[in-house]
């Protein structure tokens, strides 16, 4: 890296280069600002230290011209006490910082390092924005991980067809976004996309909401009413949490899939419908079939094309892209013209977290951080403690070890390790003890014993 010094003070010219060399800069110095600007135009140095008051040309004029030649240069203003106001104006014009003369070597080193870190942060943010191209986006679904690229490929293949799709993934993984992407790239684009959360509607009302009803079908049915299926005519109908539908209603839903016909509640006539059905569930659909809460024939009708969304903890390389995307979307909340930035250690804390709530949880956290950030920059201290603590994984505070024997300290560490490891295995496999035990390489009885030993609760506590 190259540093340029512009100052008519010979002491500055003779002393600063030694300091900058310790910071791995090759240094060039000019007493005349015009000569310094010629050097900027042809050589584009990474760092420029310039005096604010010089007889030939003011430091503000040097700053303006230097930024025209090299906008990315780090420009630091050196000024006497009487020119602090001008130094602040220089920062508004694009200077990275200013330092008051006389200054100590340590103070100058601190300012330069801080400016270098801020430049690196801006560069990282630009790179993240550059990555948010069509290569890593499918409609509004974002991901560069191999798992998400595979899903993008599936969407491309299945979207132009009329096949039913069953999307499986934990809560918050973006199942509806996948369904909308399929609709957007389908031949039904421009037609209605109607989505229904089957859990949000009480089971005794769901049938009439889906199929509609005839006048007099039940108390209060004073007029015929069309259902949600009819509102999606020629378009796409998306059912979230389809495994939670009442078993009897599932049988009627099967007719819609097989015959593209249905009867309104209280009606006798069959109504023809032209819709494409997409469905999603956070349950393991085959397990739901085995547990007799999901009809096997309906499962096979819906599961023509299965798409399994990975949890966010299994695609951590996508977190920086998602963070940048959500920060961009939250900029309107900050009442500032400047975009919110995030420091690398804060981003690393987010990457290290397990995200049990997946993308939905990440989006909410980023929105909160953007609103609460000071100086439009998210730093490590802004990250909630429970997320920052996740960076330690299996590490623990050994300060208590001073009062324990080696054996007792070792046993306590092992206890922490086992409890944390088993908890994460249970979360990863949605409380399925058999699968968690198999992946951990222990038998089911041992796994149960350890769960009891560490009071990890029942498998239901870990189901999504």
Description:
The chain is of the alpha/beta class. The protein has four domains: 2-130, Rossmann fold; 141-310, P-loop containing nucleotide triphosphate hydrolases (Rossmann fold); 315-392, Helicase, Ruva Protein, domain 3; 398-462, Arc Repressor Mutant, subunit A. Helices cover 46% and strands 14% of the residues. It has 19 helices and 18 strands. The chain has helices spanning 10-22, 33-43, 59-69, 84-92, 105-131, 146-158, 175-184, 203-211, 228-231, 247-259, 285-290, 296-302, 319-329, 344-352, 358-372, 385-388, 406-428, 433-440, 444-453; strands at residues 2-6, 26-30, 47-51, 74-79, 97-100, 137-138, 141-142, 165-168, 193-197, 212-213, 225-226, 236-240, 261-262, 271-272, 276-281, 305-308, 341-342, 377-378. The chain is elongated and about 100 Å long. The two termini are 51 Å apart. The relative contact order is 0.07. The model is unreliable at 391-401 (pLDDT under 50).
